[in-house]
Design a protein that fits this description.
Blueprint: E1 6-10, H1 30-46, E2 50-54, E3 70-72, E4 77-79, H2 90-98, E5 105-107, E6 119-122, E7 125-130, H3 136-148, E8 152-157, E9 168-172, E10 175-179, E11 192-196, E12 207-209, E13 212-216, H4 220-228, E14 232-236, H5 239-242, E15 253-254
Parallel strand pairs: 1-2, 4-5, 7-8, 10-11, 13-14
Antiparallel strand pairs: 1-15, 3-4, 6-7, 9-10, 12-13
The structure holds citrulline.
Residues 19-21, 62, 65, 67-68, 84, 87, 117, 163, 166, 244-247, 250 line the site of citrulline.
Length: 255
């Protein structure tokens, strides 16, 4: 897996507490999420990446989840078309921020919708989930873009997870962290799987950043399995992020 040099994050807005969620974990605390976000930024920096921190945008409560408005590769950027109406306008600030780093841009256009959280890249292969946020037309457009650029892509209808990456993460070296519907999914049969049990499902959303894998705190089994596979881990408290259906991958764009 290639090394990441850059990461984009966006500070949580005070309106974060009124963002979209399907969880019943209660309302997040703004002060606490701001602290957890700062710890996330520090952890990324400790992995040797340059972190660009975009200012909070009160107009978009969910805009801290910068993974959804874009899909990035080393060669090009795809500006997504987020499927939740209240989030769609987030893509403008992200495209502007990416202008400094990319020359080649593609766009997912309506009636295609797509959230970056439904896109998993594993080496030269993209898996694109069909969800409440990503429709067939959005997935088809992304597949066409990445295939034109020399990658392969497959489209997978999701059965249970909110976003594709809610239940799966690629760590490099053929190692795939899988939970729920992905454990026995034929699309991931050829990987060396790190299987996450039902009660630890939240920790399937973890991120490899250069020499470390960042995982949510409180999942000792997941930590053990990932370390056994040969990785060093960093644990972060994600309680206030989980309350809004977010995970570690959602909070950054890594490239
Ligand atoms: C939303 O419903 O859009 C946000 N509350 C959570 C987005 C999480 N993003 C992700 O999984 N990529």
């Amino acid at each position: 897996m290639s090394q990441f040099k850059n990461v984009i994050v966006k500070a949580p807005a005070k309106s974060y507490v009124d963002g979209l969620t399907t969880s019943d974990l209660g309302k997040p605390d703004y002060g606490k999420v701001a602290e957890q976000h700062q710890a996330y930024v520090e952890a990324l920096k400790s992995c040797g990446v340059e972190v660009t921190e975009l200012p909070a945008d009160e107009q978009y409560p969910d805009s801290v989840f910068v993974e959804d408005p874009a899909v990035l590769t080393p060669e090009f950027a795809v500006i997504a078309n987020p499927g939740a109406e209240s989030r769609n306008g987030e893509k403008e600030a992200i495209e502007k921020a990416l202008g400094k780093f990319y020359e080649t841009f593609y766009h997912i256009e309506s009636p295609g919708f797509l959230d970056g959280g439904d896109v998993l890249q594993a080496d030269n292969r993209f898996s694109i989930g069909l969800s409440e946020r990503t429709n067939e037309e959005g997935a088809r457009q992304l597949k066409e873009i990445v295939e034109k650029e020399g990658y392969t892509a497959e489209i997978l209808p999701l059965e249970e997870f909110f976003h594709l990456k809610t239940g799966i993460a690629y760590l490099g070296n053929n190692n795939m962290v899988v939970a729920g519907e992905f454990i026995d999914h034929p699309a991931f049969a050829d990987y060396d799987k790190i299987v996450i049990g039902k009660e630890d499902e939240y920790s399937a959303n973890c991120i490899r950043v250069n020499d470390r894998v960042i995982i949510p705190a409180g999942f000792p089994e997941t930590k053990r399995k990932i370390e056994e596979a040969g990785y060093k881990t960093i644990e972060l408290d994600m309680s206030e992020v989980q309350k809004q259906d977010g995970g570690l991958s959602c909070l950054s764009l890594r490239f």
